[in-house]
Every structure is written in structure tokens, then in C-alpha cells.
Specification:
By secondary structure, the chain is of the alpha+beta class. The chain contains 12 helices and 8 strands. 43% of the residues lie in helices and 13% in strands.
């Protein structure tokens, strides 16, 4: 029987034989994909190994421990590939998934709208049949990395006069075309990873409809389950390169990319964060104060509970597991914010990396609210658990 220790030895041997800091991201990602290390949790017939989410996370963690460039992070690998693997045709799986695994194609998620966030089924973007394809009009918002995307996972209304959930279809939208305008949104963190996307006569080929027409809500449930499980089970981490041609990372040396993260992982909340806060409390001579000691201990316990639960719960398909994982992670960031603010006191109001503790607490404070919204608000997650797991009546 193969064990996780066996997997680690196999991966280490493979890295020893293939890693070279002079390789380009394009070549390294292709090698990862060819060896099926990119997404081990995907089925074998679509380029994975058919392993559990836990083993897939262990592979990613080991790549990080070895100091090599990890898989091509992004919406494509996290959401588009598993959705197309489950709901797409054989032709669509063969067309889209290999390019995602090799980092050649970047994706974004065109779900939320200005008036349809938590109530996603109220979306107004339309896709009208036109010849052998579709014409799309509408507005999407909070679309991560849309400025780099080659393809968008689009939910659009294709029928009226039915229940609002039944008249929606799931499309793969080509982003590089007239009729698609992307406007970055500057966030309070100072970054611009979110975007507005305006669709005005954009075209979708007929073979880019994933799943049956008007049945996109069912397909979207797969996407959302993967999103919630991914948000909940994977701690925030460094992102060193963006897949696809637009970001300009594919032909850069992996050694160069590893030297300067594109997205800094210091906003993570894990045991390293707890250790940093303990060190900060010692530096400020507050580690003897009972409230500070109690708060740090409780944060350590919360991080450990989240880690263990994520490892044990495994697949996103378990009822309520993805919702609970996402709720736990959002709560972790709130706890870390409060503990860090308690330790820092008035210094917590300064965003200055030269201050004690750098700007770790401030970045967690600014970034944390996003986790209570992304992938469905905390309130939506609790309603889903109440109704679908506990069998309670729908919220009036």
C-alpha cells in the first residue's frame, strides 16, 4: 500500500532529477504537468493522480519546502480544471485542462455582479444565441486577476420565464476580444487584484458551453464547492508567478521568480504567524500579561484545529465540509487581527514595516474581511449548513 511517505520520497527523487533554477516557468510547469505533480487530486484521465485533497496539499507543501516553484496557481487550476473535469465534454477536457496544468492559460471567475453577489442566481448578464455561438452583455465585479486571464468562467442568463436557478448557463469566455473591458479596482491593501469586467457584445463559440444550456447552476455548484474548500483548506501563500502569457512570467527564469514573490504570503495565518506574534509580545514585553497569553494560546489552538480539520475532512464533496472550512479560515483571520491588535496596542494603527513586528498585523487586518465575503459570505455559508446539513427550514 502506497503511503504519504512513499509519495514524498518519489517527489523528492523527481525534484532532484528535474529542478534547475535556470529553467523558464513555462518549461518547469510543463515538466510538473507531464509528471502529474501539478494537480494530483484530479482524476488520472485528466492529468492528475486521483489522490485525495490531503495528499494533493502535501505535494504542494513539499514543493514549497524544497524551495522550488510550485504549480501554476490561480483560478484555472483551483476552479476551472476541476469543474471542467466533472461537467465538461471529453473534447472540452482535452482542450482546456492540459493548458491549465501547464500554466499556458490563465482563467478568471465571472460570477458576481454589482446586484448579484450573495444572491448569485439574481444575475442579469445575458447570453443570447447568435449563429453557432452566443453574444454576451452585462457587468461582472470582484473578478480576481481578470487583467491577466485568457479565459473566464462565465455565468450568464440564457432563459427567462423559468425559475431563476434554471435559466443560467456556464460558459468558457475568451477574454482577449472586443466587447470585453477589464477595469482594475484598487483595494484598501494597496493592491489591484480585483476587477470590474464589462461585457458588451462579447462572443462565445458554441463549443464553449459547459454542461447543458440553462443548467449552469448545477455546474456552478461544483465550482463554488471547490472554491470554498480551497479557501478553507489552503492557507494563504506566496504566489511567485501568474500563468498565461499576459502576466509575462512564463519565459522568466524560475530562480528569478522565486526571488521576488508576485503576491507576498506574509498575510498568511498559520503557526508561523502565531510564532511571529509570540515574538512580538516578547519584544514589547507583554508576554507576561494574562490577557495576551490567553489570546495567543487560543489563536494557536484555532490554527491547529483548522489544520487538523482540513486534513481529516478531505474531499470538497462531503456535506458541509467546504462551508465549514471557509468559515473557520475567516474566523482565524479575525482572531489573528484581534490578537495582533491586543499585542501592538496603539502601534496597530500604523502601517509601517519599520515598526515592531513589521506590518504583519496591519496586513492581516486589511486582508481579513475579504475572506468573509469571497466564495459566499459567512452568512450564506451558515445558511447552507443549516438547510442542507442540519435540515432546518429555509431562512424567511
Amino acid at each position: 500500500m502506497v503511503t504519504l511517505a512513499d509519495v514524498t520520497r518519489e517527489l523528492d527523487a523527481w525534484i532532484d532529477g528535474h529542478w534547475d533554477s535556470e529553467l523558464t516557468a513555462r518549461d518547469w510547469w510543463k515538466a510538473l504537468a507531464d509528471a502529474r505533480w501539478t494537480a494530483p487530486a484530479l482524476a488520472v484521465d485528466v492529468g492528475g493522480r486521483g489522490w485525495s485533497r490531503e495528499w494533493g496539499s502535501a505535494v504542494r507543501a513539499r514543493l514549497a519546502e524544497r524551495g522550488v516553484l510550485g504549480p501554476p496557481d490561480g483560478i484555472g487550476l483551483a476552479l476551472a480544471a476541476p469543474t471542467i473535469a466533472q461537467a465538461g465534454s471529453a473534447q472540452q477536457r482535452a482542450r482546456f485542462i492540459p493548458a491549465i496544468l501547464a500554466g499556458e492559460a490563465a482563467w478568471c471567475q465571472l460570477f458576481s455582479e454589482p446586484d448579484a453577489g450573495s444572491d448569485l442566481a439574481s444575475l442579469r448578464t445575458t447570453a443570447q444565441p447568435d449563429g453557432d455561438g452566443w453574444v454576451v452583455s452585462g457587468t461582472k465585479v470582484w473578478t480576481s486577476f481578470a487583467q491577466y486571464a485568457d479565459w473566464g468562467m462565465l455565468l450568464a442568463r440564457t432563459s427567462s420565464g423559468t425559475t431563476k436557478h434554471r435559466g443560467i448557463s456556464w460558459f468558457a469566455l475568451p477574454m482577449d476580444q472586443p466587447g470585453v473591458e477589464v477595469r482594475p479596482i484598487r483595494e484598501m491593501t494597496g493592491e489591484s487584484f480585483f476587477n470590474e469586467v464589462f461585457l458588451d457584445g462579447a462572443r462565445i463559440p458554441g463549443d464553449c458551453l459547459v454542461g447543458p444550456v440553462d443548467d449552469g447552476w448545477r455546474v456552478a455548484m461544483t465550482t463554488l464547492a471547490e472554491e470554498r474548500a480551497g479557501i478553507g483548506s489552503d492557507m494563504s501563500r506566496a504566489m511567485y508567478a501568474v500563468p498565461g502569457e499576459r502576466a509575462g512570467h512564463l519565459d522568466q527564469r524560475v530562480g528569478t521568480l522565486l526571488a521576488a514573490p508576485f503576491v507576498d504570503a506574509m498575510v498568511a495565518v498559520d503557526q508561523g504567524t502565531v510564532a511571529a506574534l509570540v515574538s512580538l509580545a516578547r519584544q514589547l514585553e507583554r508576554h507576561h500579561e494574562p490577557p495576551v497569553r490567553a489570546a495567543l494560546t487560543q489563536l494557536w489552538m484555532a490554527v491547529e484545529c483548522h489544520r487538523i480539520a482540513a486534513a481529516v475532512s478531505g474531499a470538497a464533496g462531503e456535506p458541509g465540509a467546504a462551508n465549514l472550512a471557509k468559515l473557520r479560515l475567516a474566523d482565524l483571520y479575525r482572531r489573528a487581527r484581534d490578537v495582533g491588535s491586543l499585542v501592538l496596542g496603539p502601534l496597530g494603527t500604523l502601517v509601517d514595516a519599520s515598526q515592531p513586528g513589521g506590518d504583519l498585523v496591519q496586513r492581516i487586518t486589511l486582508f481579513g474581511p475579504a475572506l468573509s465575503i469571497a466564495g459566499g459570505t459567512d452568512q450564506i455559508q451558515r445558511n447552507l449548513v443549516a438547510e442542507r446539513v442540519l435540515g432546518l427550514p429555509r431562512d424567511a
